[in-house]
Amino acid sequence: MAYITQRRRSVRSSSVPRRFNRRSPVQVRTRIPQRFSQLKYSRIIFLIALFLTLNWTVGGVLKLLFPAAKPQPQTQIIPISAPATTDTDQTVVYNIKTPPNLAQSQELQMIIDGAVDIAKNQGLPTESLSITLINVSNNSTHTLAGYNNNTLRFPASVAKLFWMVQFFGYAEKGYIPKESPFYTDLSQMMRISDNDSASRIVDAITQTKSGENLDPSELDKWVEKRIQVNQFFEKSGYTGINLTTKNYPITGVGEKPIGRDLQLRENPAYSQGNFVTTDQTARLMYEIYTKQAISPLASTKMAYLLTRDLNPKAWKNIDANSVEGFLGESLPPDIYYGSKVGYTSRSRQEVAFVRTLNDQAIYILAVFGDDPAYAKNERVFPDISRYIFNRLNQTSRKTTPEKVSKLNQL
């Protein structure tokens, strides 16, 4: 481009044809000077800077003369539990108001009878045994059968299943502002049944704290908050449920309740310990895995926390695992399995969701053995579980009770 410019500049006026020189010159209009046309750019910039400086100076003086009110420090804990429940207040009630419409199944009942026989043949007290089985493999009809399935029994750590559901219910309603700070406690509570984590979750959903003894008036207020965990489920058809007592041992507390927790436990008017039925436990599991519990998103999160790996490599070398001696030990590893177990020196419990890859068997099984004999016996739960798994895989939807009875005798 520089070369072209240079060539153009070297062209002499004499080389231009004369006919172009003869044309009248172009008339250029003269601009009339305006008011600010002769201002230099530097002066304009100076005026702008001066204006901004004056603006900032005046603003600063006004802030000094009229300072904004200082924020007050937070002196009270922000309540995360719901307000007191009334007949018209539904915000603290579990969202599924009525039990699921499950059909009683004679076919399933025959299978349950066979499971009870397994416990009886191992010399275990069947009056201390409760079983609930829900078959969901048929899309059109979900069926139910059980044994002592409406008897209230001690759930041990299966209570954590209910506490988890209430936590997500409160989180979605905004009573627990942030879910993420509790994720570790939720995971530890559900995956390894950690009692310390469960204690903090109970504190969060009831806005209570464990501690020293309280005088009667203060204890009444404290208990009123703690029993919210019962009210959350009672108004949705979970009749007679009690989940106000924490699981022990707890670090820094010991093997059993002390202080106000002991006051709660020792007063029959307040609580006589935790109690649920296998029907209630299986129902809650059913509502989680049908994505009805709280919301589809919350149900998905809870199902994730319940998922267990049945591959022996995942649990065999862990001392206090939740597979050995329970329903999952005898099942094949290539299935989906979600569960929550409970165990004490006096009882053994579990609720599980089982689904095969081909969907031949999809069911929920809850088994409570509320006697020291079940705590000592590490074979009865795996044996009952495998028996039911085999029956539901071998039994088609058109199988008659007579065929099921023959299978029970195998």
From TrEMBL:
TM annotation in the entry: 44-66
Report residue spans for region: Disordered.
1-24
Q: Which SUPFAM superfamilies match?
A: beta-lactamase/transpeptidase-like
Q: What are the alphabetically sorted keywords of the record?
A: Membrane, Transmembrane, Transmembrane helix
Tell me the Gene Ontology biological-process terms attached to this UniProt entry. Answer: beta-lactam antibiotic catabolic process; response to antibiotic
Q: Which GO terms describe its molecular function?
A: beta-lactamase activity
Q: Which InterPro entries match?
A: Beta-lactam/transpept-like, Beta-lactam_cat, Beta-lactam_class-A
Q: Where is the composition biased (Low complexity)?
A: 12-24
Q: Which residues form the Beta-lactamase class A catalytic domain?
A: 136-368
Q: Which domain of life is it from?
A: Bacteria
Compositionally biased region (Basic residues): 1-11
The name under which this protein is listed is Beta-lactamase class A catalytic domain-containing protein
